[in-house]
Amino acid sequence: MKVGIIGDGAIARYVRSHLEDTHVCIVRPSKIGSAEASDTILRVADASQVPDDTDLMIDCAGHSALAQHGPLILKRGIDLVTVSLGALADAHLHQKLRAAALQGASQLHLASGAIGALDCLRAAKVGGLETVTYLGRKPPQGWIGSPAESTLDLKTLKDPSVHFDGNAREAATAYPKNANVAAAVALAGVGFEQTKVRLIADPSIDANIHELSATGEFGSFTFRIEGKALPDNPKSSALAAMSVVAAINRMQAAITS
Ligand SMILES: NC(=O)C1=CN([C@@H]2O[C@H](COP(=O)(O)OP(=O)(O)OC[C@H]3O[C@@H](n4cnc5c(N)ncnc54)[C@H](O)[C@@H]3O)[C@@H](O)[C@H]2O)C=CC1
Ligand SMILES: O=C([O-])CC(=O)C(=O)O
């Protein structure tokens, strides 16, 4: 399988290090000439330059990259795995990606990202869900560059502080680098409006802690994960990068779980 990637950040580097070969990489135009001499990968600036024989593209570059490159990749009949699923909180983009996939007879696969138990939520949805709540906690440095900065002094924070309380659509839209998990939970469960989200900066922790609780016809469950961040990006959990590799592996397996 010829696999290409979008982005060259923390998640993309992890994913590439776990793939035998990467065929092509879509990067920002300013980075086209910046490849290290040892890196022989074909670097291109947009989806129209991705070679025709590419079987699968992997988006590890965030919401704007999925919006920019996703529709053409799918229209060209190339399957796409994305970790930037918070971008789907934009109903217009959601519809555009869906239409592109139908037109190209391709599929957009949503990596599970930094959370687990989405399989449980999807199954529970069949019987009917009553409440779904997601709580995202990160150390203060994980919220730098986000709207948390407008309500909290992240450098001097002493106590755990809630800086967002609302629904998954608002969270995914306002926190494109931090609330993709809220979108993953919404898409697997009761949708963007009904999924309750709280985001917390917590100086007493050194992990990205995600908690998911649901009740419904099936009963109830709570899932909690303490995820280590990737060494080169405190915002992104290592599990998010691992989930992309797992999604690629699943797509190539004869028997999938
Ligand atoms: N689903 C989940 O649980 C998670 C999802 N994410 C998403 O993954 C994204 C990437 O995370 P990291 O690798 O840690 O971030 P990063 O900041 O280390 O890397 C992002 C890379 O994307 C590139 N990029 C941005 N826009 C681009 C465009 N239009 N075309 C080509 N390249 C572009 C940047 O140059 C950079 O190399 C985050 O922005 C976030 O939206 C991150 C963590 C968890
Ligand atoms: O990596 C994480 O822990 C979660 C994250 O940034 C996101 O949901 O966008």
Averaged pLDDT: 96
What's the arrangement of strands in the largest beta sheet?
A: 3-2-1-4-5-6
Query: How many H/I helices?
Result: 9
Estimated radius of gyration = 18 Å
* Secondary structure tally: strands: 13
Low-confidence stretches: none
How is the topology of this model organized?
Blueprint: E1 3-6, H1 10-17, E2 24-26, E3 42-44, E4 56-59, H2 63-75, E5 79-82, H3 91-104, E6 108-110, H4 118-127, E7 129-138, H5 148-151, E8 161-167, H6 168-174, H7 180-188, H8 191-194, E9 196-201, E10 208-216, E11 219-227, E12 229-230, E13 233-237, H9 238-252
Parallel strand pairs: 1-2, 1-4, 2-3, 4-5, 5-6, 7-9
Antiparallel strand pairs: 7-10, 8-9, 10-11, 12-13
Helix pairs in contact: 1-9, 2-3, 6-7
Bound molecules: 1,4-dihydronicotinamide adenine dinucleotide (NAI) and oxaloacetate ion.
Q: Brief overview, please?
A:
The protein has 257 residues and is of the alpha/beta class. The protein contains 9 helices and 13 strands. It is globular and about 50 Å long.
How would you describe what is shown here?
The chain has 257 residues and is α/β, with parallel strands linked by helices. Strands 3-2-1-4-5-6 form a six-stranded parallel β-sheet, with helices on both faces. Strands 8-9-7-10-11 form a five-stranded mixed β-sheet. A hairpin with a 2-residue loop joins strand 10 and strand 11. It starts with a strand and ends in a 5-residue tail after the last helix. The structure holds 1,4-dihydronicotinamide adenine dinucleotide and oxaloacetate ion. Oxaloacetate ion (OAA) binds next to helix 7 and strand 13. This is L-aspartate dehydrogenase.
